[in-house]
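Protein Record: Sequence and Backbone Structure Tokens
======================================================
Tokens: labelled as protein backbone structure tokens, with as many entries as the chain has residues.
Task: work out the structure tokens from the sequence, keeping to the layout shown below.
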Amino acid sequence: MALIEFTKAGIYCPQADVYIDPDKKVGRAIITHAHADHARRGHIRYLSSDVSKPLLRHRLGKRSIQSLPYGKKVKVNGVEISLYPSGHIPGSAQVRLAYKGEIWVITGDYKVVPDGNCEPFEPVRCTHFVTECTFGLPIYHWPDPKVENENLISWWKQNAAQGITSVLHAYALGKAQRVLSALLEEEGEIYIHESIDLMNTILEKYGYRFPQCQVINPYYSPPDLSQALVITPVGFGRNSYFNKIKKKSTAFASGWTLINRFKREQGFVMSDHADWNELLQAIKDTGAEYIFTMHGYTMQFASYLREMGYNAQAAEKSGGR
């Protein structure tokens, strides 16, 4: 019996009877991080990192959620399970499963270069490595995070000098906190959507620091935002609240802005995923003999890895589970 199987429900460890980031309802699930595409409702029991637990509680409601500190090992039917930082968003984790000399690491999503926003990525030695490849093409190379932070601040300050509201679209969990962490020493009014404020409130209990922000109230007309930076999820940017702001400049914080996928006035290349070089470095550092690619350019990236001499293949869900 293989230690890990790629099933219709998701990545499955039969020996421990546990799934990692399953797509369908299962009995026991290890969740790599609290983004909705990895942390789905309906499982009976959940396991996550300590920081992810309150985020999952907020998003999933009353569920049976246990947590582990990074690096602590527990055994389930002989399988040693532990979690390690993935550098993706606050609380995100790689999952290590070891049994009879076979060691698998499932990354979920990850980023190797630290940006000061979350626990930095920790390479984990293994025999089998399951890697995401959201940006698994050589065209994806991220700029220096410090330079991109400076570009964002400059955009905001130039707009403010002209009485233009700066509206930045960023995911409520992960990206928004990365942006806010970069603004700790900046002066000026910052407004955030309530969903971002909720995430901040949870994370502040774990030592995360953010600048003083005011929360948008969509039920009232906007105050004077002519010199403000407003951070909001992309969907809320189409709300009638923003139609009342006559002078505004909109931007998006995402790795996809590198190829102008989002047609907005401004884009800042801020990704919480590994770029091409980071993916290759992470794989090298594991020392893994077998590589499995998921989430993104799976076929292309696996093909390139085989050309480099790796035993690599795109992970495919199969079977009747």
Q: What stands out?
A: The mean pLDDT is 91. The longest strand covers residues 79-85. The radius of gyration is 21 Å. The longest helix spans residues 145-161.
